[in-house]
Amino acid sequence: MRQFFAIPIILQRVRVEGSGVAREVDMLLDTGAAYTAISWDLAKDLGHDPAGSPDRVPIITANGVLEVPKLTVSRIALRELSLRDVEVICHDIPELAEIEGLLGLSFLKHFRVVMDFKKELLEIK
Questions:
Q1: Domains, the chain, ranges and CATH?
Q2: pTM greater than the 0.70 cutoff
Q3: CA 43 → CA 39, 74, 106, 119, distances in Å?
Q4: Which residue of 6, 11, 89, 91 shows the fewest CB atoms closer than 10 Å?
């Protein structure tokens, strides 16, 4: 019987923009996340105030259900793929300190995503 294991795919230099500011960050690909998640520090760097955001969504974490801020960033770009006005949530993932977010379905659903584990291939177009 075959066993499959989740392999973390870190996408380097994802460009996130907001309020005239842009940052390139490393993000973890998460096809199971409804929203793209960015760290609180990244949201603040982009000119947002996550604590003051009136929109909140519940997420399920290892520590239970949390209500997190939801906001819209001006643009997210992964190499030549670009999308404007992307809904994101703000959530710090402490066990993944080297990344600043998760690239989830609020971005990915706009593209064709192919994952071939046998060939070790990820294609997003």
A1: 10-124 (2.40.70.10)
A2: yes
A3: 6, 11, 16, 36
A4: 6
